[in-house]
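Re: that chain you flagged

S.,

Sorry for the slow reply, it's been a week of failed gels. I finally had a moment to sit down with the sequence you sent. For the record, here it is as I used it:
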Amino acid sequence: MSIIMFKLKSISFEQLQELHQAAHELDNQERRPFLLIMEGIGLGKNLALLSFHESYGDYATYIRELKEAAHSNMRAIIDVQDIEGFLIDLNYENHYQPITFSKIAHHLQAQALREDANKRKNE
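Prediction finished late last night. Pasting the C-alpha cells below so you have them in one place:
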C-alpha cells in the first residue's frame, strides 16, 4: 500500500471541479486499485492518494507515470515535480498494528451515536 502526496497549484473553483472530474475519469480507467484521493493539509502537500501495489517495481512505475503526468490535463493543476510517496509492505510480519477497517467502523459508529445523542439533547 502506498500513500502518495501531491501539491496542487493555486487553482480556481472551476479548475478544482475539472480536477474532480478528471479524478472520476481516472477511477473508471485506473488499473491499480486505490482507496481514496482526498484533499487535506500537511507536509507541504494538499492532496493524498492511497493505493495498492503488488511490488516495489509496480509502485516505482506508478510514481514515474504520475511524474510524467500521463494525464496531461492535470499537469497545469498538479506540481508533478513535488510528488512524494511512502510505501508500506502489508505482508511484513512485524507491523506495529496491521491495517483494519473494523476500528474505523467502530469509531464512526461511536461518533454517529454521540452526534445523534447531541441532536436529541438539543431538540
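What I noticed first: The chain is about 40% helix and 20% strand.

Talk soon,
D.
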